Amino acid sequence: MDIRKTFLEWPVVRQLTGGDPLGRGAAVQSAHTKAITARTKTADRVVRSVCPYCAVGCGQRVFVKDEKVVQIEGDPDSPVSRGRLCPKGSASTQLVTSPGRATTMLYRAPRSTTWQRIGVEEATDMIADRMIESRSRRWQDTDEQGRPLRRTMGMAALGGATLDNEENYLIKKLFTALGAIQIENQARI
Hints:
This protein has three domains: about 1-35, no CATH class; about 45-95, 2-Layer Sandwich (Phosphorylase Kinase, domain 1); about 140-189, no CATH class. The chain is an alpha+beta fold. The chain is built from six helices and eight strands. A hairpin with an 8-residue loop joins strand 4 (about 105) and strand 5. It is about 30% helix and about 25% strand. About 10% of the residues are buried.
């Protein structure tokens, strides 16, 4: 293929002689640029979602092709963000599609130097068993004067800024129901 261009193929000539005098459209497009198709055009479907990072709740449009996320953009119909995303929200695609994303549970036994893969159900059961054991071992039903406490000092909760309001609300309710009083959020620290 000959890559040399003739004088008539120059963008400035096309701009001055064609229907694009400001040079914002077809006059300045190369053949390569014209052949490029946006990932959003080839998506099978668009799913509406909410950004997972902070409690603002910016709307997102998730473009899916062959059951894989190909692009995530701001949702222009969202009354919260009106199509805009912060830099962190704009990088949501990387959160979902990164090859370094953890997809399995890892467990390191006490005093071990290696990690082993375990199933989600096994990991959930281990966490639940430890929470129940810690709660019962450190339970305080009453104080020295017999006043009711009904609390445990054996566990604490730390919510994260990557969780939304609803998730943090449910975590707060869970730990309060378990009797924990040391409940904090990353945003306040």
